[in-house]
Amino acid sequence: MLDHEDKVESVIKGDDSSDETASFKSKVYRIFGREKPVHKVLGGGKPADVFLWKNKKVSGIVFGGATVVWFLFEVMEYYFLTLVCHGLIASLVIMFLWSNATTFINKSPPKIPEVSISEELVRQLAASLRVEINSAFAVIRQIALGKDLKKFLSVMTGLWILSILGTYFNFLTLFYIGLVVLFTVPVLYEKYEDKVDPFVGKVMVEIKKQYAVFDAKVLSKIPRGPRKEKKKTQ
């Protein structure tokens, strides 16, 4: 049997063939208790590829486009309706002139594809949105019923932080900050997860200790109504 130091040494050397190494790796703290790679945590597929910069060209276009939109609306104080109208005017003028110019230079007119939204796509989006909304309603109901004090405090803290940020940033800026976080934090975490996870593990242990003290001194002393016993089904 290898002791703890031998297990650590075997992991550092890259000896992944041993059962001891696999057992050691399975016990390593992972953020949010995840057991899947970061790519799977982000949902997998093309969206995860974009956020993790698997395709640098597509990721650069998406991130650059979002940056341009934020710059136009926040820095240049452009209005959304004005931007849409100006964009449509420029596009239609260019396509109109191009289509008519082809008759004089004996070239084929531009091929403009027919764009339409399929019914199946709308149903898939609606189904996905329905699941997320129902999950949010379930969490809100669980908190309102007072069944999970820890989740209640977490949600209240998150809403309070958002309310403070809302006094300094508008919705578009907050959305852009969230997008920047999605394009930077996951890819950096995937690169340095072996260093981040142990550090976060130590922080979580300390937080749990402090929460246990807070629970013993404050939360456990809060009076609560009597619990109703479930009727046994015969």
From TrEMBL:
In the bilayer, the protein is annotated as: Multi-pass membrane protein
Q: Where is the Reticulon domain?
A: 47-234
**Which biological process terms from the Gene Ontology are attached to this UniProt entry?**
response to bacterium
Query: Which keywords does UniProt give here?
Result: Endoplasmic reticulum, Membrane, Transmembrane, Transmembrane helix
Q: Subcellular localization, per the record?
A: Endoplasmic reticulum membrane
Q: Which Pfam families match?
A: Reticulon
Annotated signal sequence range: none
TM ranges: 58-73, 79-98, 159-189
Protein name per UniProt:
Reticulon-like protein
- The organism of origin for this protein: Heracleum sosnowskyi
Tell me the lineage of the source organism.
Eukaryota, Viridiplantae, Streptophyta, Embryophyta, Tracheophyta
